[in-house]
Q: What sequence folds into this?
């Protein structure tokens, strides 16, 4: 990380930027981040624990909240799992192979990052809803309800987190090159062995990193899931939807408590990520 | 580094897996699960009703799954495939939509209460102490008064509110043109059209606006939850009647539930949350949030109804709220308050 | 390679390794071909077909209906508010993001590691929670004595919050990789610090800043969750495009929702193309 390079450069930086400028930059950076992020987020903690542990225990013992948290975990798990498989596959295909349309596919992969979650929800609704959807009518006649049910929510979450694993893995795959894989193949390993023993271990940190990012993103999805879920309390309400509902139902402190749980998990995810980040070795 | 890191990652991922395992194992499919779809303000009020029903013989093995939202939106969602056994909406046209879609039987109104299960009146919610001194409809259209009312396109409450304001003019002998002028001024004073009655209440409690037009029961519930509101039932107002029905392919338990809702016990539970009873013989409890807890539902001086003063909802809905030609739809477009 | 701008924590990419000749146009093995087929099918089911449905539904009402929806004064106000605030936030992010990246890379002080972690919080935090926390600090009852809930300031705050990490994380790796010999040479030749920054450092950062700005703008335009509770969604005042779309959806007016959504999609695609161009420029330099 920059720590080590900071040490190496200390002789440089001390002449590179005048002390008053350095202090100004520091104050601006820290001040902005404090006022915009650190202080507001601390509010969740303050509101949650304003009455000691009672709000938190009440909230966590509310069966709706419990169901919502479990549903969030379930949806996030499936979305991350699907994106992991899809992500690693696509990454390898994009880096190690050539095929017509590769450039187009690579550009399209990034689309979900820039699309609004409400657009995602609308798009899935148009195609998969049971009455007028392009595929939805046929699917529901055969027993698979997508919209207003878990599959739709999983798909919506998959959509928004789709590029995350790929964006982590692709640069690493490109960077390390395929020499080892070629060597393995020339020594007689088949594709599966090469993949499992050579490729996968070499990208494992990128994959883990991508998975943790996807997980954080999937836990926090709100807009897309709201549209496709039908908002059935206790059935298709995820934790984020519960936060909104509690807030609307005159139960603000429980809304804060649920937010605290979600925020805690997200922050734990980032800390894990920050510890995992491979140190820059120059 | 790698062992520690692997442990950290393994721990977090297995935590998620454990939660998932719980969810998969605990996936409920009990004997009878009723899917209740209701309009936005019902959630708290339904809780004691569910508990009461579960204590009856018919309700012993029944569990509930619920979904609440703006009446129009919920009705459209059911039409679009949302699973429901029993539906409780804000107003008749939202039920008619389901009848037309073949989801509710045409004779849903054939019972003692004409299909109605709860009722209320249109009222004004104001800040504690009523600083703007709002007492009557004419106070709402004074310049500078900021109104919050939900959006008629999605909310049932909104339609009740607008028609009440229309009735105020026409019921006192005014012409249609005068009523249109009045509603125009009302819309011009409206600063926000949230999608549902509950979202309107939240917007109001966040500090927007001087007056919220809403159900009397919503005002009472808000006060019971500690919101610093007062409410006024204007001297001339509209009777709100909320219909409910059992869907065509619902289980018998749904009909049992519907019958239970009309018992005096259930109606008394609803009264605790500010809903006016629709059957006789209900012992009114003390209603905490009401202006006078021991006399929570005073009769307004003039009470208009949709049937008597508007010729029934079928006509009124088309005349006022039709998507192209409705009087209110056109007024909304004119005042730019489509929402 | 995906059109990935220099990403948060990975090294800059090299698109070609020395010594390789031109690659064949198609070197898929059977297994790879099958994997590609399945992946593309899944991608179509999940992303391509639904997004196409939006375009088709938007076009379904004909050009007139499309234009009427977009020029409806409330929708138009939402569009101008969203685009305006997003541009403002992106401009602020360009400056502040670069400053923060600079401080993280070139400075060292107690607590810098904490700052680095906090930068990522907006990315990981659920957006509805973001709205709630900003409400606590800047809404009614704020300890700062301000009440910005339901004002344009609230929209700005929410967008600034969720887009904070983007420019920082695209600039940071580039700054880390910059070699100092050129800077030192210029300094030893008498160039002032500002000149060194302006002429040597900044040009190297511009592609990364541009990429971060594009991501930040796209994110800001599409933001929904944090604004639901914080902005009040007051028409003509604080209502953003995504709220408008949800109102249309819930009102059953999918054609209008699709029309507005198609505009947002067009912006998203524009951003992707811009990112791709930036990436190509960076690759050529690298």
A:
């Amino acid at each position: 990380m920059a720590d080590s390079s900071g040490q190496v450069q200390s002789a440089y930086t001390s002449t590179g930027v005048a002390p008053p400028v350095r202090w100004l930059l520091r104050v601006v950076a820290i001040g902005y981040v404090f006022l915009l992020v650190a202080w507001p987020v601390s509010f969740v903690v303050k509101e949650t624990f304003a009455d000691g542990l009672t709000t938190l225990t009440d909230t966590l013992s509310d069966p709706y909240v419990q169901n919502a948290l479990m549903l969030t975990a379930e949806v996030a798990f499936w979305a991350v799992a699907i994106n992991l498989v899809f992500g690693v596959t696509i990454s390898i295909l994009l880096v190690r192979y050539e095929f017509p349309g590769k450039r187009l596919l690579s550009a399209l992969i990034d689309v979900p990052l820039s699309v609004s979650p409400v657009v995602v929800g609308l798009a899935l609704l148009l195609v998969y809803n049971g009455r007028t959807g392009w595929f939805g009518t046929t699917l529901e006649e055969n027993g698979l309800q997508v919209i207003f049910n878990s599959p739709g929510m999983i798909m919506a979450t998959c959509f928004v987190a789709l590029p995350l694993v790929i964006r982590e893995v692709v640069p690493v795959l490109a960077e390390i090159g395929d020499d080892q894989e070629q060597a393995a193949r020339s020594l007689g390993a088949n594709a599966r062995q090469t993949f499992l023993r050579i490729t996968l271990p070499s990208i494992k940190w990128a994959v883990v990193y991508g998975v943790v990012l996807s997980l954080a993103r999937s836990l926090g999805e709100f807009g897309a899931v709201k549209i496709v879920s039908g908002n059935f309390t206790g059935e298709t309400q995820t934790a984020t939807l519960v936060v909104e509902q509690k807030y609307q139902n005159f139960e603000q402190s429980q809304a804060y408590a649920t937010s605290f749980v979600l925020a805690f998990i997200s922050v734990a995810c980032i800390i894990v990520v920050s510890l995992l980040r491979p140190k820059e070795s120059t | 580094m790698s062992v520690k890191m692997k442990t950290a990652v393994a721990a977090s991922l297995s935590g998620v897996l454990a939660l998932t395992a719980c969810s998969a194992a605990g996936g409920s499919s009990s004997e009878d699960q009723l899917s209740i779809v209701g309009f936005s303000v019902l959630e708290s009020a339904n809780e004691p009703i569910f508990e009461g029903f579960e204590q009856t013989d018919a309700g012993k093995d029944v569990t509930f799954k619920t979904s609440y939202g703006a009446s129009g939106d919920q009705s459209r969602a059911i039409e679009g495939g949302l699973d429901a056994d029993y539906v409780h909406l804000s107003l008749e046209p939202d039920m008619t939509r389901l009848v037309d879609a073949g989801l509710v039987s045409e004779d849903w109104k054939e019972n003692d209460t004409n299909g109605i299960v709860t009722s209320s009146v249109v009222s004004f919610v104001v800040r504690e102490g009523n600083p703007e001194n709002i007492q009557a409809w004419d106070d709402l259209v004074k310049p500078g008064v900021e109104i919050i009312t939900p959006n008629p396109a999605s909310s049932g409450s909104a339609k009740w509110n607008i028609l009440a304001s229309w009735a105020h003019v026409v019921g006192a002998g005014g012409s249609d043109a005068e009523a249109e002028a009045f509603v125009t001024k009302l819309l011009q004073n409206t600063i926000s059209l949230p999608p549902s009655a509950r979202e309107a209440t939240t917007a109001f409690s966040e500090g927007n606006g001087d007056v919220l037009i809403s159900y009397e029961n919503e005002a009472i519930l808000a006060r019971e939850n500690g919101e610093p509101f007062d409410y006024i039932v204007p001297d001339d107002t509209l009777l709100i009647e909320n219909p409910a029905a059992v869907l065509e392919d619902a289980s018998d338990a749904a009909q049992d539930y519907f019958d239970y809702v009309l018992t005096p016990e259930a109606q008394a539970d609803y009264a605790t949350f500010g809903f006016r009873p629709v059957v006789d013989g209900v012992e009114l409890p003390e209603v905490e949030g009401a202006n006078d807890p021991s006399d929570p539902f005073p009769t307004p001086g003039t009470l208009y109804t949709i049937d008597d003063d508007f010729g029934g909802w079928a006509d009124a809905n088309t005349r006022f709220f039709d998507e192209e030609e409705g009087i209110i739809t056109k007024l909304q477009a004119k005042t730019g308050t489509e929402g | 390679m995906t059109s990935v701008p220099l990403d948060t924590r990975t090294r800059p990419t090299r698109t070609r390794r020395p010594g390789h000749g031109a690659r064949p146009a198609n070197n898929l093995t059977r297994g790879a071909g099958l994997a590609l087929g399945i992946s593309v099918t899944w991608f179509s089911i999940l992303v391509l077909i639904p997004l196409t449905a939006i375009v088709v539904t938007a076009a379904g009402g004909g050009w007139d209906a499309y234009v009427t929806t977009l020029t409806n004064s409330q929708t138009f106000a939402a569009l101008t508010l969203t685009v305006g605030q997003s541009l403002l936030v992106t401009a602020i992010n360009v400056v502040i993001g670069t400053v923060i990246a600079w401080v993280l890379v070139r400075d060292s002080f107690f607590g810098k590691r904490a700052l680095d972690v906090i930068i990522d919080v907006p990315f990981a935090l659920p957006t509805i929670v973001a709205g709630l926390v900003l409400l606590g600090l800047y809404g009614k009852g704020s300890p700062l004595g301000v009440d910005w809930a339901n004002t344009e300031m609230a929209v700005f705050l929410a967008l600034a919050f969720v887009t904070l990490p983007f420019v920082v994380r695209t600039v940071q790796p580039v700054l880390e990789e910059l070699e100092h010999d050129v800077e030192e040479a210029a300094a030893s030749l008498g160039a002032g610090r500002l000149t060194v920054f302006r002429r040597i450092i900044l040009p190297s950062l511009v592609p990364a800043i541009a990429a971060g700005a594009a991501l930040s703008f796209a994110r800001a335009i599409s933001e929904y969750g944090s604004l639901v509770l914080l902005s009040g969604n007051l028409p003509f005042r604080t209502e953003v495009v995504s709220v408008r779309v949800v109102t249309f959806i819930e009102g059953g007016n999918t054609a209008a929702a699709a029309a507005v959504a198609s505009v947002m999609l067009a912006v998203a695609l524009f951003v992707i193309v811009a990112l791709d161009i930036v990436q190509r420029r960076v690759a050529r330099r690298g």
Summary: Residues 63-285 of chain C form a domain with the MetI-like fold fold (CATH 1.10.3720.10). The mean pLDDT of chain C is 81. DSSP finds twelve helices and no strands in chain C. Chain C touches chain A through 113 residues (CB under 8 Å).
